[in-house]
Write a structure and sequence with these properties.
Helix content: 25-40%
Strand content: 25-35%
Structural class: alpha+beta
Strand order of the largest sheet: 1-2-3-4-5
Largest sheet: 5 strands, mixed
Number of helices: 4
Shape: globular
Number of strands: 7
Distance between the termini: 23 Å
C-alpha cells in the first residue's frame, strides 16, 4: 500500500490485517503484529498508518508476541495496544492490555470499535449510526492464538516467521463484524 501523506509520502507498507473500503487506497482499520519486530518498530509502523494515513486510517491495533524463556512448556507473552488520533491528529494510546499470560480479569477484555472507525466515516451507510460500537473480544483472540500455537508446536517448532503468519491469520478472525 502506498499513497501516504506528510513525511511518509514515499513509504510503502503492508499491514498484517486491514479493513478497507473498495474505493479507498488506504484502510480504515489496521492490525500490526510482531513476533520478531520490536515494540519500537511496531510503534513506527503505527505512526506511519495514523500520521501518513490521515484521514482514512482510524484505528491501529498493535499485537506484540514474545516467547517466555526458562519454562518447560512452549508459552508466549502477548500484549495489545489500541492507537487512535487525538484532536491534533497525533497518535495516542487509547487502550492496552495483556493477551498472554491470561490476566485474572480476562473475561472483561474488549476493544470497542465504532462503525465509523471500522468502515471509515465516509462509508457508513445512510440510516446507520456511525457511533454504533462493536466489541472485539480479546478472549476470541486468545482462542485463535492457542489454536495457531498448537499448530506451530506440532508442525513448525523452530520457525517463528511461520508462527507469526499463522497467529496473524488466525487473529484476524477475532474481528467479527
Amino acid at each position: 500500500i502506498e499513497n501516504f501523506q506528510g513525511p511518509y509520502t514515499a513509504s510503502r507498507k503492508e499491514p498484517d490485517l486491514l479493513l478497507r473500503h473498495n474505493t479507498e487506497d488506504l484502510p480504515s482499520f489496521v492490525i500490526e503484529s510482531g513476533w520478531t519486530e520490536s515494540l519500537p518498530r511496531l510503534h513506527a509502523d503505527m505512526r506511519l498508518w495514523l500520521i501518513g494515513g490521515q484521514p482514512e486510517v482510524q484505528v491501529v491495533i498493535v499485537l506484540r508476541w514474545s516467547k517466555l524463556t526458562g519454562n518447560p512448556t512452549e508459552r508466549i507473552k502477548g500484549i495489545f495496544e489500541v492507537w487512535e488520533r487525538n484532536s491534533t491528529n497525533m497518535p495516542y494510546l487509547k487502550q492496552e492490555g495483556i493477551i498472554f499470560p491470561v490476566p485474572l480479569n480476562a473475561a472483561l477484555d474488549i476493544i470497542p470499535i465504532t462503525r465509523a472507525q471500522l468502515f471509515g466515516p465516509g462509508h457508513v451507510l445512510a440510516g446507520r449510526n456511525p457511533t454504533d460500537v462493536w466489541n472485539l473480544r480479546i478472549d476470541n483472540l486468545r482462542t485463535w492464538t492457542r489454536l495457531a500455537i498448537a499448530k506451530w508446536v506440532i508442525y513448525l517448532h523452530d520457525n517463528t516467521l511461520e508462527l507469526l503468519k499463522v497467529v496473524v491469520r488466525e487473529a484476524g478472525r477475532f474481528v467479527n463484524v
